[in-house]
Amino acid sequence: MQEGLRTEIQRIILLALFLLVFGLFNGFPLTTLLIGGTAYMIFTFVKINRLYAWLASDDDSMPPEATGVWGDISDYVYRLKRRIDQSQKNYAGLALRIRQITSALDDGMLLLNADRSLDWWNPAANDLLQLRESDRGEHITNLIRNPLFVNFIHQTQFDQPLELHSPYDHQKIFQFSAGRFGRGEIVLVVRDITRLRHLEEMRKEFVANLSHELRTPLTVLIGYIETLRGSAEDLPARWHRAFEQMEQQANRLNAMAEDLVMLSRLESAQFSPKPAAVDVCAMLATIVDN
Question: Which residues contact 189 (CB under 8 A, 6 or more apart)?
């Protein structure tokens, strides 16, 4: 039995005995019990009212002084209130830290409700998509009207990212990726990949130009080597091995140039690969020889 409940029962028993004895002395035991019981109920209601008033207050004051059951209830409610307040402070601190972290990101982050309405965004998203406070609650497709994006954001699964030109600056390229969480909410990440795409285009052009610039001198070199080997009978025997190695290495460089051309075609999506059988043993033997 709880200490407060035991104290309350003892108080009621002692009060009832006192009232009974006092009533026997004055000759009105029943009336004395009724008056004492009424007084005790009024005393209890006063304590309940003070507890209600303390619960209604928003300050961190101590609960009203009480003993017995109401003292235990006051202490329990006070501890529970302290735990709730601490949990709210922890949650607010965590939310603030998350906002600070997302504010430091270069990528834009937007939170969408299950109906695709805009709920929150970080400063990077504000800069990339030129959002305003009045856009909160707007459907995201009212802000980004590209049909490809409309189809993308209404998918059930976001397996692949989407690349689009910026709706406000056609020179910029954005990559959109999304994921679901909670009760159907969506986190949408926007990344400016303009510089990355420009670097990729420069690399493709470099590979294409390099392969072309390699093939031209290699063709001339291989031609002269073949011509010299054709008249190798007039040269000393030690030159035969030298011409053979020169031709092998020139052909090897030519094969690398062809690989670069193939890579350039693959990356530019202008080449459709055709399956073909490969002699693995011969390929491995060539690798070992090289």
Answer: 107, 108, 109, 110, 176, 177, 178
